[in-house]
Task: inverse folding
DNA sequence: GTCTATACATAGATAGAC
DNA sequence: GTCTATCTATGTATAGAC
């Protein structure tokens, strides 16, 4: 199992990913041109950056629902009237943030895995990429998790689909590796579940790891090593799980 | 490592714990007698059950902040005026729910561990007890996690202290077992963190496990087996984590 | 103890001046 | 494109009848 190709530090990942807030907002603008009243792209992008940063910051503190649009005005520096030129309602703002995030996760993960040959290589790559990405977009990941339950039925379905999508990536890799005999996972479904749990802990408890000076590389290393233990060792133990 | 004493199924735990909503509300009433206007204990307890059930249900769907007191009236069957005889404001309602939950977790965990002799026994017991308890009080655990960020500074500190308290229990048990040479955990701090992450997954994603027919006993077994792999095996591998 | 009716503040959203 | 002023709905909270 050669994993050397995977070991990339966070800074390199950051440069390679090129996911600045401006890039993201430009993409959002182009995707939603019909619903946004502003016509000059550069003006729109500049203000969208302000709006999304302010929204993520306020929501992290008190939740999206509890954030009033007046607070959003103060934090973003725009007026009420201006805000409504960028979205037709609070719902649309929520919607855009969630959708764009999902698009990014899907794209980045799939591209990363495609470069790998072995199942173990793909698995470690997926783990590390997910953790680095959630570090880069920590506020969005946190937001996305916390607001998922407050959605309308349609959007809730989309959120659940997204949760299951990433989990499925890990499940598939576990089963693929089982077939290859690269490793032997006794219970791939539950293993994929706790993999997700470990990945989520990084962005849900960011404050904790910051306080303890745990770097993102350390956390990724630890998770990968933990998974290695589980998928390499369980096969020798009882099989009735 | 004899773990036989720990293997208790959920139904037995449930009976032993005797944590009916009524019991909990009675305790809440007694703790807050000075702040609750109702003087007849039985009347108060009966309505507190309605209020808390309604609050947990509505909050699970849309969040505590987004839940209006009018909705709470409908769901609980009480009127606005009546509600305000039980708490002096929405904040107090939030406060009571969080505090009472913490008290229960602390008490149940500590009592369970006290019965065990070995570190591994205590550890598996703590894991199983936590998972069973979070199954029994799933709505409260979910609520508590989701609302933690929406609190005033003081309450936020209390929430963080509570999060770290349970984590500390696991950390202490890991280090105790290291000293005893019952096992060897390379990185107890990070190990305790991901233990918490796995425990939280059970009540944060209850819908997922329900859909897949994973029982609470199965999940507890899986988590314990996973931890066994990590703490028994890591010691043979690289130590630079 | 519980209800209905109501006060008062703040929310989201829009109109129209600039 | 952006601002200020304002509309209407809804929120929390209270008063007073029963």
Result:
């Amino acid at each position: 199992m050669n994993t050397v190709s995977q070991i990339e530090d966070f800074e390199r990942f950051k440069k390679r990913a090129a996911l600045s807030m401006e890039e993201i907002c430009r993409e959002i603008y182009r995707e939603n041109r019909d619903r946004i009243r502003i016509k000059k792209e550069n003006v729109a992008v500049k203000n969208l950056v302000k709006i999304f940063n302010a929204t993520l910051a306020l929501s992290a503190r008190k939740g999206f629902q509890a954030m009033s649009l007046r607070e959003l005005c103060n934090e973003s520096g725009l007026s009420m009237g201006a805000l409504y030129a960028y979205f037709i309602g609070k719902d649309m703002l929520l919607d855009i943030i969630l959708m764009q995030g999902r698009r990014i996760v899907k794209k980045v993960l799939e591209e990363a895995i495609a470069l790998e040959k072995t199942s173990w290589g793909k698995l470690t790559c997926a783990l590390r990429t997910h953790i680095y990405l959630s570090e880069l977009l920590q506020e969005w990941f946190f937001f996305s998790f916390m607001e998922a339950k407050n959605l309308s039925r349609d959007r809730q379905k989309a959120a659940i689909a997204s949760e299951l999508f990433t989990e499925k990536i890990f499940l598939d890799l576990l089963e693929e590796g089982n077939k290859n005999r690269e490793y032997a996972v006794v219970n791939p479904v539950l293993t994929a579940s706790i993999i997700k749990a470990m990945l989520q802990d990084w962005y849900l408890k960011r404050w904790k790891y910051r306080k303890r000076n745990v770097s993102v590389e350390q956390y990724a290393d630890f998770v990968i090593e933990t998974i290695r233990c589980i998928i390499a060792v369980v096969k020798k133990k009882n099989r009735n799980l």
In short: Chain B has one domain: 9-236. Chain B has a mean pLDDT of 93. Residues 9-236 of chain B form a domain with the Tetracycline Repressor; domain 2 fold (CATH 1.10.357.10).
